[in-house]
Write a structure and sequence with these properties.
The chain is an alpha+beta fold and 187 residues long. It has helices spanning 2-26, 36-42, 92-114, 139-154, and strands at 60-63, 66-72, 120-131, 161-167, 176-184. The longest helix is centred in the N-terminal third of the chain and has 25 residues, at 2-26.
């Protein structure tokens, strides 16, 4: 009788442990060090007011836990834009800086939509478009300016799938335009 009692308790303990492990795997681990806005301060980046759309569209659309951000370009807070064609009158280094500036603009949009960048769970997908001469093939080096800043701000959450493609032209002659998809935590 005692033996059956111990076996029953052992089985019960195993079942409860399995259920507990399954429930624990459903919850997410909270990273107390995750603070993208503090990282921006450490990087001496001040987010500007989000650029406003110039046509009949919005900066971003949220559906469920995904945000689809409209394409933005390398426009400074003062209103100047990096314009020109990579491989003709814009260097890779200038294009990289333009892609980084575009990342700052997109972060400003995210901040305005979410209120707090801690709500970003993951940068999912980036489409980087580079105004390129026909023989220019270094688009990934340009869009690295965007990707590198996402990782600097969000850590591993900033690593994303990406396309970096050449375009014959971009609006207003801007050197780069970048759109992205962001996963956010449920409200």
């Amino acid at each position: 009788m005692k033996k059956n009692y111990y076996l029953f308790n052992l089985l019960l303990l195993i079942v409860v442990s399995i259920i507990s492990c399954k429930e624990q795997s459903k919850t997410e681990v909270v990273d107390l060090n995750y603070d993208p806005e503090l990282r921006l301060q450490e990087l001496n980046i001040i987010l500007p007011s989000p650029p406003q759309p110039v046509a009949n569209y919005v900066n971003g659309v949220r559906t469920g836990n995904l945000i689809f951000l409209a394409g933005k370009g390398p426009k400074s807070a003062e209103g100047t834009e990096l314009i020109g064609k990579l491989g003709v009158d814009v260097t890779i280094e200038e294009g990289y800086a333009g892609a980084r500036l575009t990342a700052i603009n997109q972060l400003a949009v995210l901040k305005s939509m979410l209120g707090d960048l801690k709500k970003v769970k993951r940068i999912v997908k980036v489409l980087g478009m580079v105004n390129s001469a026909p023989d220019f093939v270094e688009q990934p080096k340009v869009i690295n300016g965007f990707s590198d800043l996402m990782v600097a701000v969000f850590g591993d959450r900033g690593r994303h799938a990406r396309a970096a493609v050449g375009m014959a032209s971009l609006p207003r002659g801007q050197a780069v335009e970048i759109e992205l998809v962001v996963e956010v935590y449920e409200d």
